[in-house]
């Protein structure tokens, strides 16, 4: 059994995509980041950076004590190695998959996240910041579009690289991106969207967090660190 500490964000969706694809038994523990659940002492024991997602594997492959893992990229790699799925044993394919996983973690996710922040959440509309992150998101979409030319998925078969990137493209309209400008990426996106496991993963939103993402002043204070209990 995998205990999944989750909220309905792109990083959270990465893990439900994997778990649904792999058919692993898991239990969701909602962490409402708009209410500050991420600062609870019990959660910080498994996710010291007070971010979702995190997991606890109660049946690790070494048959020892339960293992906790935080950071979505690390979780995807851990689960892939645990199950022997969605990460090739071939040295070159594995290396490419991890390259693109880290590309998402270091590029697509952070840049699209800043795009969301300055475009949707920031109390002041700073035109320079909005343009900067919209353009950088477009550049990264272009990188992925070129990679997907003549490829069904990012690295041969469907992998944790695809699972990492897809949730950050789902909010493309909010990021001011038109997928028609990126035909290879659009074809890839539509292919993944149609997978039954993807449909099951995203159906969890209505169970865990029906309605809109938190966008009130109190939630923003918590989400963006203004009410972090570690602040002076």
From TrEMBL:
Does the entry feature the keyword tRNA-binding, yes or no? no
- Describe the family membership recorded for this protein in Swiss-Prot or TrEMBL: Belongs to the GST superfamily.
Domain GST N-terminal: where? Answer: 1-87
**Residues of the signal sequence?**
none
Annotated InterPro entries: Glutathione-S-Trfase_C-like, Glutathione-S-Trfase_C_sf, Glutathione_S-Trfase, Glutathione_S-Trfase_N, GST_C, Thioredoxin-like_sf
Looking at the record, the residues that make up the GST C-terminal domain are 90-214
Identify the keywords attached in UniProt to this record, alphabetized: Transferase
Question: What top-level branch of life does the organism fall under?
Answer: Bacteria
Cite the residue spans of the region called Disordered.
208-232
GO molecular-function term, one example from the UniProt record: transferase activity
Q: Does the keyword Cell inner membrane apply?
A: no
Give the Pfam families listed for this entry: GST_C, GST_N
Q: What's the protein here called?
A: Glutathione S-transferase
């Amino acid at each position: 059994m995998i205990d999944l500490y989750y909220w309905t964000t792109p990083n959270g969706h990465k893990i439900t995509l994997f778990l649904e694809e792999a058919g692993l038994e898991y239990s969701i523990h909602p962490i409402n980041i708009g209410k500050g659940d991420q600062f609870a002492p019990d959660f910080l024991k498994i996710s010291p950076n007070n971010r979702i997602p995190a997991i606890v594997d109660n049946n690790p492959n070494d048959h020892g004590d339960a293992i906790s893992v935080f950071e979505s990229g690390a979780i995807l790699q851990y689960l892939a190695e645990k199950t022997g799925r969605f990460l090739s044993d071939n040295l070159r394919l594995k290396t490419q998959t991890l390259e693109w996983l880290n590309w998402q973690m270091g590029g697509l996710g952070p840049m699209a996240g800043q795009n969301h922040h300055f475009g949707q959440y920031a109390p002041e509309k700073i035109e320079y910041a909005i343009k900067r992150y919209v353009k950088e998101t477009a550049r990264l979409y272009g990188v992925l579009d070129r990679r997907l030319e003549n490829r069904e998925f990012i690295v041969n078969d469907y992998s944790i690289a695809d699972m990492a990137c897809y949730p950050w493209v789902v909010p493309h309209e909010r990021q001011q991106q038109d997928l028609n400008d990126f035909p290879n990426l659009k074809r890839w996106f539509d292919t993944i969207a149609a997978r039954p496991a993807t449909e099951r993963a995203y159906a969890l939103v209505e169970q865990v967090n029906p309605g809109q993402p938190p966008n009130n002043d109190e939630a923003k204070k918590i989400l963006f660190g203004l009410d972090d209990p570690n602040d002076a």
